[in-house]
Amino acid sequence: xxxxxxxxxxxAFAEGISFLVLLLIAMPLKYFAGMPKAVTIVGSLHGVxxxxxxxxxxxxxxxxxxxxxxxxxxxxxSIIPFGTFYMDKEWKREEEAVA
Length: 99
Prior knowledge:
Layout lengths: L1 H32 L3 H27 L4 H12 L3 H15 L2
Helix pairs in contact: 1-2, 1-4, 2-3, 3-4
């Protein structure tokens, strides 16, 4: 069971990285260097990771009886730059508590 929480945290980390790469590298390349393909590639990867995060969050919510508010915090943290990194500290404590 703890494995689900571990995967959730790993996916959240990867999603956070992809969001920053999209915002700080791919979008400037598109708008300042005329390279729209960067957003296409990174945006697609980020989209897959975002959906994966939603699925993993649902699985954690279901397995550990988390509240709707917990799921809402996951969503908000995924749309704020650095949000998943900030929340990881709390998620790590939660994961250790269920061990």
